[in-house]
Write a structure and sequence with these properties.
Elements (H helix, E strand, L loop, with lengths): L1 E6 L24 H10 L3 E7 L1 H4 L5 H18 L5 E5 L22 H9 L2 E10 L2 H8 L4 E5 L4 H5 L12 E3 L2 H12 L4
Parallel strand pairs: 1-2, 1-4, 2-3, 4-5, 5-6
Helix pairs in contact: 1-7
């Protein structure tokens, strides 16, 4: 059984562009590959989980989401490290495309993508973390007893200003970027073995 970290993609591993529609928009943060190497060395399975409401809004197809992510992972692999898997949620409650206008269990912070990953990998959910630039990202792990990290890249600074202990759990850690987050997660894992 492996410890697992669920990583947001846009605004966390790559620059936030609101809706990733074209390959030329992909810009991997400089600290992403070193961060992934820290997590790999610590023994983590690394899984990217992404809310992709652009599908529900009619901006791109599910096939295009997968295709663009393959480019992201390919670029990361060429730089020296990449996550183990990618899951996405195409749903959105106010969707313009009717078939995606559903209340689902996969839209973060709901745990549906965690459950998908659990079926594919031998994950130790008692050693589960999530990292992302939104409170829904940090809340993902916290909703199943794990620890969540908010990064201040992407939407992170605005999200930090929304933290309200009365409306939900605060992130377990707030990191300047993915490298700082990975360093904290790898150190924290040592206390959970």
């Amino acid at each position: 059984m492996h410890p697992v970290v669920f990583l947001d993609r846009d605004g966390t591993l790559i620059e936030e562009v609101n809706f990733l529609l074209e390959e030329k928009q992909i810009k991997i943060f400089p600290n992403t590959i070193p961060a992934l190497k820290i997590l790999r060395q610590a023994g983590f399975i690394m899984i990217v989980v992404s809310n992709q409401s652009g599908v529900a809004r009619g901006l791109l197809s599910e096939e295009r989401v997968v295709e663009l992510n393959q480019v992201v992972f390919s670029q990361m692999r060429m730089l020296g490290e990449m996550p183990d898997a990618f899951y996405y949620c195409p749903h959105y409650p106010q969707a313009e495309v009717e078939k995606y206008r559903v209340k689902c269990d996969c839209r973060k912070p709901n745990p549906g993508m965690i459950m998908q990953a659990q079926r594919q990998f031998e994950l130790d959910l008692s050693r589960l973390y999530s990292i992302g630039d939104k409170l829904s990202d940090s809340g993902l792990a916290q909703n199943v007893g794990g620890k969540g990290v908010l990064v201040l890249t992407g939407h992170g600074r605005e999200e930090r200003d929304k933290i309200d202990p009365e409306s939900g759990p605060e992130p377990n850690f707030i990191a300047s970027d993915i490298f700082s987050a990975a360093t904290w997660v790898a150190e924290d894992l040592k206390t959970r073995i």
